């Protein structure tokens, strides 16, 4: 199938835009490859330190006869998505020993849960945790004793941070090993209804807790299609997972087999063999375009509009929101997974999953088929599905048809002809909206603004009955990366849903973020320039007429003398201390804008 012309044009534009930084990056990777691991060149004392605790692997390491695999892990047992990683290192060590290799845990990286910190001070560290994870990855691999790497991470900032770190060590092969989603609990729709009842004061906290515990009930990723599961989709579309491995539940024989094969595959891709495939060669401009196409066709998390830009820049590739917007205009929406539908990711996987979606997009010309992957071939191999046989793990052709057209549809009959995200711009700046779950009749709202400087102010106004009547645009500003780390504002979703449900036309405008689970409320988020930078959002006043229009891509205000107003200032002292925030002042002072990845690593690309 011929490649879609817009996909081709956007890819060519990214390649041209990135030519200089990409060439410089690849030169660095070639130089690093030429030097190779320092294992054989370490002093005897250095080698003794590196191998002292490796037991039976000590002599193979000292003799330099085995390929050596570095494990970077985000394990902790407070987060359900990462708890399964507790047993992965030993399984990986055993698997590579059987093929003559060795493995060590190179280091751990932090992993925090946005679900735990929603509406709390800790959420202000969430976005910055991504770059912290990247730094921790750098420290883990700085000993330079590894021939290949595997990365154990799942959730919101963890995978993007690991990808950034992996690209800094891009001369090494990298395989990402997921933990998989927890088994399905109560439906996401039922969970959302209980949250709205609690927000309306109709039920008590005991009933709310019972509902939440029934939804989040075991090891694995949360089953809705938020940022964590969008990350897993991306790793498959971009060729860093084994085919069909993203949504296999923890604790199963299949999950164990995929983990072991992924470890062996990482060593097979090292420079010691005949199939050397460093991650810098996998994550090229085409792979990032494939990732954006995957984001659009599945209605994935808006957080990736920030993360993909930061991830790409670590490899010398410059993306911008216009790339996302143009691809969204031509990529069909093929999946409806909560919050874009009633199904969860387990239902999605059973209905044909990523293999079916990738096959449809390859056939329709929306994906680059010839990218390099850890599977050792192009993206066509990602239409296959893993099975266990007497001979071990094998891949067979995946579903040729959707097994549930309420969850997945073919490219010839999509849920909608365009993707799940829209770019908005106008005299209020530039922002983005996740439209895949927003009903068409709610995609344009024009109403008076009600302006707040904090989500807690919005909650208080709702509880006081100040938001009970009339259409309105809720504006929450001074929530950008420089102001307070750009927290998600998902805790406002239940009462915004109540307002919409009782007939009010309501929308959100903010320089902050919404959760990957954001859905039915039209939300212009990530607005740049942010209020702290004097962006137009800082000039808004209560009663200004604001238009949020995903149909035309418009974000504008109609108010006399608006351009001549001075931007307001806000007291941000409450964001400076407590719950670790004082340690991240350096990040707040150095972070770039949301449309350039909200990253402190601007020097990676020479900004």
TrEMBL record:
It holds the Pfam family ILVD_EDD_N. Residues 69-380 form the Dihydroxy-acid/6-phosphogluconate dehydratase N-terminal domain. GO terms for molecular function: 4 iron, 4 sulfur cluster binding; metal ion binding; phosphogluconate dehydratase activity. PROSITE patterns: ILVD_EDD_1, ILVD_EDD_2. Its EC number is 4.2.1.12. GO terms for cellular component: cytosol. It catalyses: 6-phospho-D-gluconate = 2-dehydro-3-deoxy-6-phospho-D-gluconate + H2O. [4Fe-4S] cluster binds at residues 155, 222. Transmembrane segments: none annotated. Catalyzes the dehydration of 6-phospho-D-gluconate to 2-dehydro-3-deoxy-6-phospho-D-gluconate. This is Phosphogluconate dehydratase. The lineage of its organism: Bacteria, Pseudomonadati, Pseudomonadota, Alphaproteobacteria, Rhodobacterales. The gene is edd.
């Amino acid at each position: 199938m011929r490649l879609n012309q817009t996909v081709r044009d956007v890819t060519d534009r990214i390649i041209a835009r990135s030519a200089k930084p990409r060439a410089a990056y690849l030169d660095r990777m070639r130089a690093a490859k030429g030097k190779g691991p320092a294992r054989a060149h370490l002093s005897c004392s250095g080698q003794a330190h590196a191998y002292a605790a490796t037991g039976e692997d000590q002599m193979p390491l000292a003799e330099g006869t085995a390929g050596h695999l570095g494990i970077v892990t985000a394990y902790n047992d407070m987060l359900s998505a990462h708890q399964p990683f507790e047993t992965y290192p030993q399984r990986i060590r055993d698997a590579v020993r059987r093929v003559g290799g060795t493995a060590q845990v190179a280091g751990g990286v932090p992993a925090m849960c946005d679900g735990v910190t929603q509406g709390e001070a800790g959420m202000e560290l969430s976005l910055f945790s991504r770059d912290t994870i990247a730094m921790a990855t750098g420290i883990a691999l700085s000993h330079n004793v590894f021939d290949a790497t595997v990365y154990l991470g799942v959730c919101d900032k963890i995978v993007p941070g690991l990808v950034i770190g992996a690209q800094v060590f891009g001369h090494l092969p990298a395989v990402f090993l997921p933990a998989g989603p927890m088994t399905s609990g109560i439906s996401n729709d039922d969970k959302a209804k209980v949250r709205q009842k609690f927000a309306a004061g109709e039920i008590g906290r005991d009933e709310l807790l019972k509902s939440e515990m029934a939804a989040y009930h075991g090891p694995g990723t949360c089953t809705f299609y938020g940022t964590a599961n969008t990350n897993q989709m991306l790793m498959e579309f971009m060729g860093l997972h084994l085919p069909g491995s993203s949504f296999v539940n923890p604790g199963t024989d299949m999950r164990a087999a995929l983990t072991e094969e992924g470890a062996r595959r990482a060593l097979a891709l090292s420079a010691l063999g005949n199939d050397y495939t460093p991650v810098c060669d996998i994550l090229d401009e085409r792979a990032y375009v494939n990732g954006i196409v995957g984001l659009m066709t599945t209605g994935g998390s808006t957080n990736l509009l920030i993360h993909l830009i930061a991830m790409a820049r670590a490899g010398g590739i410059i993306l911008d929101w216009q790339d996302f917007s143009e691809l969204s205009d031509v990529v069909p929406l093929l999946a409806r997974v909560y919050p874009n539908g009633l199904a969860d990711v387990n239902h999605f996987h059973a209905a044909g999953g990523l293999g079916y979606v990738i096959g449809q997009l390859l056939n329709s010309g929306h994906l680059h088929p010839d990218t390099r992957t850890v599977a050792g071939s192009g993206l066509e191999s990602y239409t296959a599905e893993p099975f266990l046989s007497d001979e071990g793990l094998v891949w067979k052709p995946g579903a040729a048809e959707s097994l549930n057209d309420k969850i997945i549809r073919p490219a010839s009959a999509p849920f909608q002809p365009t993707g799940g995200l829209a770019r908005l711009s106008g005299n209020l700046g530039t922002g983005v909206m996740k439209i895949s779950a927003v009903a068409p009749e709610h995609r344009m709202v024009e109403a008076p603004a009600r302006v707040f400087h904090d989500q807690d102010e919005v909650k208080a106004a709702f509880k006081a009955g100040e938001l009970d009547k009339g259409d309105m645009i809720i504006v929450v500003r001074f929530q950008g990366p420089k102001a307070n780390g750009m927290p998600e504002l998902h805790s406002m979703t239940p009462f915004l849903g109540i307002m919409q449900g009782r007939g009010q036309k309501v929308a959100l405008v903010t320089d902050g973020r919404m959760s990957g689970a954001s859905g039915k409320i039209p939300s212009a988020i990530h607005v740049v320039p942010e209020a702290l930078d004097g962006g137009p959002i800082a000039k808004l006043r209560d009663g200004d007429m604001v238009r949020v229009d995903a149909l035309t891509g418009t974000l504008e205000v109609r108010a006399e003398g608006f351009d001549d107003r001075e931007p307001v200032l806000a007291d941000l002292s409450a964001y400076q201390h407590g719950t670790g925030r004082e340690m991240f002042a350096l990040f707040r002072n150095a972070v770039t804008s949301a449309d350039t990845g909200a990253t402190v690593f601007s020097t990676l690309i020479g900004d």
